[in-house]
Amino acid sequence: MIRFPRIAPGRALLLQVIETALTFLYPTQCRACETPLGLETVPYLCNACWAQMQFVEPPWCEMCGTPFLIAASSCEREVCDECAKAPPRYGKLRTIAFYEASLRQAIHLFKFEKRTALAKPLIQLMLEHLPDDCQIEDYDFILPIPIHKKRLRERGFNQSILLAEGIAKAKGVPIATDIFVRHKNTKAQSSLAGRERQENITGAFEVRKPDSISGKRLLLIDDVFTTGATIREAVKELWNADPGEIDVLTLARTPSADTP
Questions:
Q1: Which of 57, 144, 168, 198 has the fewest Cβ atoms within 10 angstroms?
Q2: pTM for the predicted model, two decimal places
Q3: pLDDT tens digits, 183-199
Q4: Residue 40 covered by a domain
Q5: C-beta of residue 97 within 8 angstroms of C-beta of residue 54
Q6: Each residue's pLDDT tens digit, 156-180
Q7: Which of 234, 225, 229 is nearest to 199 (CA)?
Q8: Domain presence at residue 259
Q9: Sorting pLDDT into bands at 50, 70 and 90, what band is 12?
Q10: Which domain covers residue 158, as residue numbers?
Q11: By C-alpha distance, which of 19, 48, 55, 54 is closest to 31?
């Protein structure tokens, strides 16, 4: 009869904790499709899922970037109905890909599960798929959408700052993180519906050094564009500093049921 050495309860618990930690740091399955991971190019996701991202392609609204669901060759429109009725206060908004499938999973891991190793491939994704009319070098400052200092302490980082820092470094454009702040601690926008989002975010931002961006060309960067409430409020506040231009770039946007 073979006798296996008995593992003390305390040591067994320690081994379980170590195994759980290793699985957390080095998962063996894709977090999107649960297939075994091999030599992947992106942490936590298999190459197949990463390749399935749906990128936002023209034709789109020249202002808000909402894609038109028709062939580019037959599109005669320049702006969507919403922007024609009420033009946004930014010059243009551009987005890299749709917030669905593997990109949704990647952003969730990055933002809410603190998997900051995903910042590098997400930045690279943005750089490789920048629209032709979004020339980063043309801007004087890159401004990430700020989060409140309480949420920053809880999360440990601002995902928009990490994305903006990577783009700013790659393109040689200054990034400003102390000029534009979020002084109102709001509820998470993801937990609210349309009108609630706008009410929640109203008055949340403040420009601390208005003279430093007066007359400057600004590029706002955020992770996900949903209803546009956060961007609208941010742009409204920034115009109080009298910049020369404000454009917006986001990593993802939610597919809209009423896309024109």
A1: 57
A2: 0.84
A3: 888 767 666 666 777 77
A4: no
A5: yes
A6: 999 999 999 999 999 999 999 999 9
A7: 229
A8: no
A9: low
A10: 46-253
A11: 48
CB atoms within 10 A of CB 156: 9
User: CA-based diameter of the chain, in Å?
Assistant: 84
Quick check: is 14 in a domain?
Answer: no
* Total count of domains within the chain: 1
CA distance 127 to 129: 6
Tokens at 122, concatenated: 């997400």
Q: What's the one-letter identity of residue 104?
A: R
Q: With both helix axes pointing from N to C terminus, report the angle between 101-112 and 159-171 in degrees, rounded to the nearest 10.
A: 110
Q: Tokens representing 230?
A: 């956060």
CATH code at position 135: 3.40.50
CA dihedral (64, 68, 72, 77) positive or negative? negative
For residues 229 and 130, give the distance between their C-alpha atoms in angstroms, rounded to a whole number.
23
**What is the chain written as a DSSP string?**
---PPPPPHHHHHHHHHHHHHHHHHS-SB-TTT-PBP-S-SSTTS-HHHHTT--B--SSB-TTT-PBPSS-GGG---SS-HHHHHS--SSS-EEEEEESSHHHHHHHHHHHHS--GGGHHHHHHHHHHT--TT--GGG-SEEEEPP--HHHHHHHSS-HHHHHHHHHHHHHT--B-SSSEEE-S-PPPGGGS-HHHHHHHHTT-EEES-GGGTTT-EEEEEEEEESSSHHHHHHHHHHGGG--SEEEEEEEEEPPPTT--
